[in-house]
C-alpha cells in the first residue's frame, strides 16, 4: 500500500466534537505540549510514538494534533498502517481557537 488514506477534520470540527469527549492525541514534543494544549489532550510525541502506542488504553478514534498538521499527518499515516482508527486535525494548534491549558 503505497499511499495511506487518512481521515482529516478541521479544528472547528474538532471543537464541535468536544462535548462528546473525543480522544485527542497531541503528537508534539513534551516542551511544546507544556507550552499550551487542548485541555483533554494526551501527549504522545511523534518521536516516541512507535514505542508508546502499545501501552495506551485510549478509546478510538484518536484525533491527532500537532503545531501545524504536518507531524500529526505523519503520525496518522503510521498509526493507520498499524491498524488504529485515527483522524488528523488539519492546521493543528496554529489553527486552534478553542480552550488551551498550560
Automatic annotation (TrEMBL):
Where does the Rhodanese domain lie? 18-102
Q: Which PROSITE patterns match?
A: RHODANESE_3 (PS50206)
The name of this protein is: Rhodanese-like protein
What Pfam families does the database record attribute to this sequence?
A: Rhodanese
Report the source organism: Lentilactobacillus sunkii DSM 19904
Which Gene3D superfamilies does this one have?
Answer: Rhodanese-like domain
Q: State the InterPro entries in the record.
A: GlpE_sulfurtransferase, Rhodanese-like_dom, Rhodanese-like_dom_sf
Q: Which domain of life is it from?
A: Bacteria
Q: What start and end residues bound the annotated signal peptide?
A: none
